[in-house]
Design goal:
By secondary structure, the protein is of the alpha/beta class. The protein is built from eleven helices and seven strands. Helix 2 (about 30-40) crosses helix 3 (about 45-55). The structure holds adenosine monophosphate.
Length: about 300
């Protein structure tokens, strides 16, 4: 499974990526987490990225594409991954496509998380992260109201709030999302990779929807819905050619003159209805031909021979 999670900051991509890791065993690759880790360790790359991150801007493509290239080469990414927060603009999407084409492993899907901005503000302001295991919690969630310490780690470390989760930076991050990341929706839709999830509601509800769209057969493999037989277009009645009034009048006049000039024809005898019906061909049944059996001619009866009296 090679998928990209697409959505505004605070739409829940990170939380759901952790759920997919638990469910399918595919690693979550978050450019935000990788950059924060580099910043925290004070590496040269981290130092270069920090200023942009603090301002809520995008870190240079060259840096993030380099990080992704290295991370996708990891042994745990060989069977798949969930990309969270990458790509974030068209240049990164093209770099990713080229990288994956070179190793013959194209993306399976891109999932767009749909959440309204009021919900995003609520989620970002309440977001807390465990510095040890990275689990994301929210103080506004009814399951974890006002949570302060990690409930996953045995040592229960205190949760921290991201430095860029403040109101001013969030406004900038949302503007950057609209300008640079949102065009990816159409980019992936055109490639037939885009699937959309309603990301409002509880974490469990969103996870259920996400799993449902990921395990659903792609549109091309699904049985096409039975289509209603297309209606035959009604034939428009043939329109008589439009003639001008003057033309019709002259045609009538010509016909009258021709009738007068023509030699009077004997009109056919008028036929009455009766006569016409009589005129119908009668089906005459032929009488079967009788065989004439000729009686043999009677022989004329012989005249009795009179005996002559003998003359004496
Ligand atoms: P995130 O944790 O995904 O919200 O990212 C936090 C910050 O890291 C962003 O505001 C950016 O400054 C930076 N960042 C993360 N991913 C990228 C990326 N793909 N391209 C550029 N900057 C990124």
């Amino acid at each position: 499974m090679r998928i990209v999670l697409l959505g505004a900051p605070g739409s829940g991509k990170g939380t759901q990526a952790q759920r997919l890791l638990a469910r399918f065993g595919v690693p979550q690759i978050s450019t935000g987490d990788l950059l924060r880790s580099a910043v925290g360790r004070g590496t040269p790359l981290g130092l270069r990225a920090k200023a942009a991150m603090d301002a809520g801007a995008l870190v240079a493509d060259q840096i993030v594409v380099g990080i992704i290239r290295e991370r996708l080469g990891g042994a745990d990414a060989a069977t798949g991954y969930v990309l969270d927060g990458f790509p974030r603009n068209l240049a990164q999407a093209e770099a990713l496509a080229a990288m994956l084409a070179a190793i013959g492993q194209p993306l399976d899907a891109v999932v767009l998380f749909n959440v309204d901005y009021a919900e995003i503000a609520r989620r970002i302001s309440g977001r807390r992260t465990c510095p040890n295991c990275g689990t994301i919690f929210n103080v506004h969630d009814h399951a974890t109201p006002g949570i302060t310490h990690c409930t996953k780690c045995a040592a229960a470390p205190a949760l921290t709030q991201r430095p860029d989760d403040n109101e001013q930076t969030v406004t900038r991050r949302l503007a950057v999302y609209d300008e640079q990341t949102r065009p990816l929706i159409e980019h992936y839709r055109a490639q037939g990779l885009l699937r959309t999830v309603d990301a409002q509601g509880s974490v469990d509800e969103v996870t259920a929807r996400l799993i449902s769209v990921l395990t659903r057969k792609p549109a091309a493999a699904r049985k096409p819905a039975r289509q209603a037989r297309p209606k035959r277009p009604r034939k428009a009645p043939a329109k008589a050619p439009v003639e001008s009034k003057a033309r019709r009048k002259s045609a009538r006049k010509k016909a009258r003159v021709e009738r007068k000039a023509a030699p009077a024809r004997k009109s056919a005898p008028r036929t009455t209805h009766k006569a016409r019906s009589k005129g119908k061909r009668k089906v005459v049944r032929k009488k079967p031909v009788r065989k004439v059996v000729r009686k043999p001619a009677r022989k004329p009866a012989r005249k009795p021979v009179r005996k002559r009296a003998r003359r004496r």
